[in-house]
Amino acid sequence: MAPFRRFVSASVGAGAVFASALIGVSATGLANKNESRLEVGSCAAYSGVPSEDGETAGMKFIPAGTFAMGSERHQPEERFTHVVRMEGFWIDRHEVTNAQFKKFVEATDYVTVAERPIDPKTHPDWPKEMLVPGSVAFVPPKGARGEDGRWWQYIAGANWRQPRGPGSSIAGKENHPVVNVAYDDALAYAKWLGRSLPTEGQWEFAARGDREGEDDWSSAFDSEGKPIANTWQGIFPVLNTKDDGYLETAPVGCFAPNGYGLYDMIGNVWEWTSDWYVSGHAKAAATNPKGPEFVSLRIAPGQTPSRVIKGGSHLCSMNYCSRFRPAARQPQENDLAATHVGFRTVHSKSNP
Ligand SMILES: [Ca+2]
Ligand SMILES: [Ca+2]
Of 21, 30, 77, 304, whose CB neighbour count within 10 A is largest? Predict the structure, then answer.
């Protein structure tokens, strides 16, 4: 798969325009359309910060087990299915929210990757428009069919506080997943809490929700075709019918949890894992796999290595992406923040 950055058409200065066009279409006004959501204490009523205290606040324990990682029946990069044994671990019930990330930044004065100056000498291949702090946003194409693939735009000044650039904000979205965070930002947050980021194996095991066998069930739609996760219904990138109630991100916990009590593993935002990305898996059985070694990656000069992201996002539709299954995977450049990528954390403490 080609680097994500290649799809980004530089569009510095467009942020404020798109912010007013898109943020005005708030998801909250549509919140009663779908009966598959609404968990007391989550979704609309959730403050964005877990009510418990302690090192595993907001987390669920996933017991040790064995599962079939990957899939033979879907995308080529998911092959081969292989047996994986996992130790037990804790994982966040929800994607990390804006309110949680704000607490971290206020406590540490952390500056995210998308807010830092960029040294042109270290990125001689980047267009000059991308050499200013900013991040990548989905912008619906103007054409009726969007066939040129230019629905990503690099927006100067876009970051986690103002996801669509100057003039936008996260006010009222305290319980939405934080977005526009690069891998190092997610890792810094996790370390602050004494945690880490999930390996792909941990994430995929948890996302299955204790279901056995080949990853062949629908995690985005129920048996009647009703959405059970925040994805894109309609025709990407030009028609979003919002059958699930949400045009962009939803507050965390608005859809039914999986068998482990985890919300939005599928959909809402893609989630960083700590594994470096290569297409495909080895056939050999593994225990607590951590992905390929960095030195084994084949990275062209000037290219940025990618991590595995999982679960699909509010932009994944049946006609495009469609990677809303536990075994589905995609590369994301390590240092590229985007409006459809967030994360959750894990803790290695063994027992509940
Ligand atoms: Ca949606
Ligand atoms: Ca997710």
Answer: 77
